[in-house]
TrEMBL record:
Chief site of localization: membrane
Keywords per UniProt: Membrane, Signal, Transmembrane, Transmembrane helix, Transport
Cellular localization per UniProt: Membrane
PANTHER family with a match to the protein in the record: ABC TRANSPORTER G FAMILY MEMBER 28, PROTEIN SCARLET
Classification of source organism: Eukaryota, Sar, Alveolata, Dinophyceae, Suessiales
Record-given protein name: ABC-2 type transporter transmembrane domain-containing protein
Record membrane topology: Multi-pass membrane protein
Signal peptide: 1-20
Pfam families in alphabetical order: ABC2_membrane
Chain ranges of the ABC-2 type transporter transmembrane domain: 1-212
Record has Cell inner membrane as a keyword: no
Domain of life: Eukaryota
Residues passing through the membrane, by range: 58-80, 100-126, 132-157, 169-191, 232-254
Organism: Durusdinium trenchii
C-alpha cells in the first residue's frame, strides 16, 4: 500500500509540478506577460484559464490516486479472506456485523495514512494552495467511501476472480459521471441520473472549492465544472450517506452468503 501510494503520487506530482504556483498571479502579472511575450491581453487571459484547468486536473489526479489506492488492496484481498470468515461464522465464533465493523476499523487508519502520504507529497510538489487539513479530510472521506464500495463488491461476488470483472463496472462510471471529462449537463438526459451515484464527483467538487477559495478568477473553473461553493455541506452529506449505503449493502450481502451456505 505504501509503495502504491508513494509511486503513483510521486509520478503525478512530477507531471503537475508547481501547477498551483502560477495560479496566484495577479492582473499586474498578466500585463507584464503581455508586454514581454507580445501576446494580446485576450491571449494572456486565455493562457491563465488554461493554467486554471491544469490546476483543477491536478486535483482530479489526486482524487483518482486516493480512490484507487484505497480500493485496490481491499478488492483483491478481501475475497481471499472471506472463506475464513464463513468457516468461523459457521462455528458461531462471531456474526456478520462485528466482522464487517472490524474490517472498517482496520481500514480507516490505513486509508488515513495513505491519504496523508498522497496529499503530503502532492501538496508540496504541485504547490497546492488550499487548506491542507480540509483537503486531507476530503481525501480521507473519499478513500473510506472507496473502501466501503470495494467491500460491498467483495461481499457480492461468488468467486475471488470475479472482482476483476465487477470492479471496473463500478469504478469506471465514477470517472465518466464525475463531470470532469464532459459536464453532466451535456450528457444525454437519460444518463444524467447516474451522476448522483458518483461519489468521486462529490469529493472533486469539495476539493475544488477548498483549493480555489482564494484563487483569482476561480469562477472560470468552478462554473465550468458545475461546482457550487455554498453546497459543500451537501457534497459532504452525500459522501457520508454513500459510505453508509454501501456499508449496509456489504453487510447484507455477506449475511446472505453466510446464511445461504450455513
Amino acid at each position: 500500500r505504501v509503495a502504491l501510494s508513494v509511486v503513483l503520487t510521486f509520478l503525478f506530482g512530477l507531471v503537475f509540478q508547481g501547477v498551483g504556483r502560477t495560479i496566484l498571479e495577479t492582473k499586474d502579472q498578466n500585463i507584464f506577460d503581455q508586454m514581454w511575450t507580445g501576446l494580446s491581453y485576450a491571449e494572456v487571459t486565455a493562457l491563465r484559464k488554461r493554467k486554471l484547468e491544469w490546476h483543477f486536473n491536478a486535483l482530479v489526479q489526486v482524487a483518482l490516486v486516493a480512490m484507487f489506492s484505497a480500493c485496490q488492496p481491499v478488492i483483491l484481498t478481501f475475497p481471499l479472506e472471506r472463506p475464513v470468515f464463513l468457516r468461523e461464522y459457521s462455528s458461531g465464533t462471531y456474526s456478520v456485523l462485528p466482522y464487517y465493523l472490524s474490517k472498517m476499523v482496520v481500514e480507516v487508519p490505513l486509508v488515513f495514512v495513505q491519504s496523508l502520504m498522497t496529499l503530503g507529497l502532492c501538496y508540496v510538489v504541485m504547490s497546492l494552495n488550499g487548506n491542507f487539513w480540509a483537503l486531507l479530510w476530503t481525501i480521507v472521506l473519499l478513500s473510506v467511501c472507496s473502501v466501503s464500495v470495494a467491500l460491498a463488491i467483495s461481499c457480492a461476488v461468488r468467486q475471488p476472480r470475479e472482482t476483476g470483472a465487477v470492479g471496473p463496472l463500478v469504478f469506471v462510471p465514477q470517472m465518466l459521471f464525475s463531470g470532469v471529462f464532459i459536464p453532466v449537463s451535456h450528457m444525454p438526459v437519460y444518463l444524467r441520473w447516474m451522476q448522483y451515484f458518483s461519489f468521486l464527483q462529490y469529493a472533486i467538487k469539495i476539493l475544488g472549492v477548498v483549493e480555489f477559495k482564494h484563487v483569482p478568477h476561480k469562477e472560470l473553473v468552478l462554473d465550468a465544472q458545475d461546482i457550487l461553493e455554498d453546497s459543500v455541506p451537501v457534497y459532504v452529506g452525500f459522501l457520508v450517506m454513500m459510505v453508509l449505503i454501501f456499508s449496509i449493502t456489504g453487510i447484507q450481502m455477506l449475511r446472505n452468503k453466510a446464511t445461504h451456505l450455513f
